[in-house]
Amino acid sequence: MRLGAFPSGDGTVELTVWAPNACTLDVHVSNGVHPLVGDDEGVFKGSFPGAAGDQYLLALDGAETYPDPCSRFQPHGVRGPSDVVDTGKFEWTDSEWQGVTLDELVVYELHVGTFSEEGTFAGVIPRLAALRELGVTAIEVMPIATFPGERGWGYDSLYTYAPHPAYGGPEGFARLVDAAHANGLAVLLDVVYNHVGPGDEALRAFAPYLTSKHRTFWGDAIDYTQPGVREWTLQNAEQWVRVYHVDGLRLDAVHAIVDDSPQHICAELAERVREVNPRTLVISEMEAGNWAPIDEWGHDAQWADDVHHELHVLLTGEHDGYYAGHGSVRALAEDLQGQKHDPRRLIVFAQNHDQVGNRATGDRLPPDALKVAAAVTLFSSCTPLLFMGEEYLEQRPFQFFTDHIDPSIAEATRQGRRQEFETFASFTREDVPDPQAVETFLRSKLEPREPEPLYRKLLALRRMLPRALEIVEADDAAKRLHLRRGDAELVADFRAKHVEVR
Q1: CA 40 to chain centroid
Q2: Are residues 288 and 363 located together in one domain of the fold?
Q3: Count of domains for the chain
Q4: Scanning 126, 152, 185, 264, which has the fewest C-beta atoms within 10 Å of its C-beta?
């Protein structure tokens, strides 16, 4: 059951759709209406005259038409027709590319829309060589699947197989991956399998993708008791590895995925993508203290938010919200040693899209604090992640921005954003930018400059250090941390916001 539309090369397109909610399913194309044949499992199959570039819609029970839930391209947005894509015609030059291992991994997280003035996949390519020269070995691209409107972080996607048209669509993403490999960089893709964005009526019309039995922060959970839903997710993960040559997946907020099956969907996903490419890296974002991704599901690594939280409180003194209970030098030292796990399997960072963008105004750490936090994470034997711009101490914000096309959802997003920060002493309602305003998006675009020398020094040093990390001193009274790896030492003074590497 290969879901979606695939041109056969003989003037027809093969199409398979899981639609158990429908009794009949027809394909509407420019040359007419073509019925698909359903089976007892609600899987409809058939073909229609067409080729790559042709557009189609699906009619359920002879009534309303919708895009294909597994559409490979939505050139006119989430309410437009689906495009037939011939992914076999992508041009690749990476046949010699071998990927990167966990030992080599230095991750650089970026958002396509704000990384360059163009805000496209093509706009990322000119800076790839400089990132590799700096010492980065992989870019991690925030979600690119099609979401409502043109501006957004990508976590509200509706058509998970379709690279967003505003970024350059399928061919644009393939060219970015190929260019990254040509520059010696792996590509990790951020994917969202815990919820879908607002405006999910089309998906619900086809099948029980979502269930009200479980709720996430964003709404109904994805229903992984449904075999068709599991395939929808698993084939999506396989697509990025097989078709787009990505080197790894970063799974968003897996603690919001509910699955009581004998094999958890996140474990099955890791197996499936490694059947496509055994070198594929699987990395999860998981709530602090839950080690299921690396202990139970066979994932390579997971984000370690506790390291960030300890660093942030030590350097800023903020204790609001989830920062409460953090700010211990000793706890930070224990976290950096992996808490009984291989430290390489912990992704650590001075900042990331969440920890910047989910602040009321999207403000970044001040330069003195950022240099201390970055030095600690880069010197550690954990796997480091840089957030775009931090290598030159970018001070432009990364704010929360959306472009919801439904006015009621747009207004609910505005109100929800303001209410989210009412309990934070550091912010007032007036501080919170309007997420729907284009200015909020534009303020978040980078102003690239030459990297801060400290980053060059630490990334070069990192390649030569032995793996073992020794805690020489972790003094909470003095707010001082002293680390050693081989002959190299780092001393961080959190009170003075000063770091020395020797």
Answers
A1: 36
A2: yes
A3: 2
A4: 126
Last residue of a domain, one of 86, 115, 134: 86
What is the distance between the alpha carbons of residues 109 and 352, in angstroms, rounded to a whole number?
Answer: 7
Question: What range defines the domain where residue 359 resides?
Answer: 102-467
Taking the C-alpha atoms of residue 383 and residue 106, their distance in angstroms, rounded to an integer, is 6
Residue located via tokens 């099955």 = 268
How far, in Å, CA of 404 to CA of 401, rounded? 10
Q: Pull the structure tokens for residue 462.
A: 């990192």
Q: Are strands 210-216 and 219-222 parallel, antiparallel or unpaired?
A: antiparallel
Helix 367-379 and helix 453-462: axis angle, to 10°? 10
Q: Does residue 182 form part of some domain?
A: yes
- pLDDT tens figures, 165-212: 999 999 999 999 999 999 999 999 999 999 999 889 999 999 999 987
Q: Is position 428 within any domain?
A: yes
Mark whether 141 and 80 lie in a shared domain. no
Q: For residues 380 and 349, state if they share a domain.
A: yes
Tens of pLDDT, residue by residue over 455-501, are: 999 999 999 999 999 999 999 999 999 999 999 999 999 999 999 99
Please name the residue that has the structure tokens 């700096």: 134
Same domain, 120 and 180: yes
At residue 366, φ and ψ (nearest 5 deg) are -60, 155
Q: Which of 317, 302, 313 is nearest to 270 (CA)?
A: 302
H helix runs in 116-168, sequence order: 121-124, 128-134
User: Which among 403, 395, 404, 319 is positioned nearest to 362, based on CA atoms?
Assistant: 395
Q: What is the CATH number of the domain that holds 243?
A: 3.20.20.80
Do 128 and 17 share a structural domain?
no
Q: What angle do CA 106, 140, 352 make, to 5 degrees?
A: 80
Would the pTM of this model clear 0.85, i.e. be above it? yes
Q: How far apart are CA 105 and CA 455, in angstroms?
A: 15
CA 236 vs. chain centroid, Å, equals: 14
Q: Which two tokens stand for residue 214?
A: 């479980």
Give the Å distances, CA to CA, from 264 to 84, 254, 258, 483, 490: 32, 11, 9, 38, 41
Cβ neighbours, 10 Å, residue 379: 24
Active site residues: 252, 285
Nearest CA-CA partner of 301 in 249, 366, 262: 249
Domain assignment of residue 502, yes or no: no
> Is residue 244 a contact partner of residue 273, using CB atoms and an 8 Å limit?
no
Q: Say if residue 145 is in the same domain as residue 290.
A: yes
| One domain, residues 82 and 200 | no
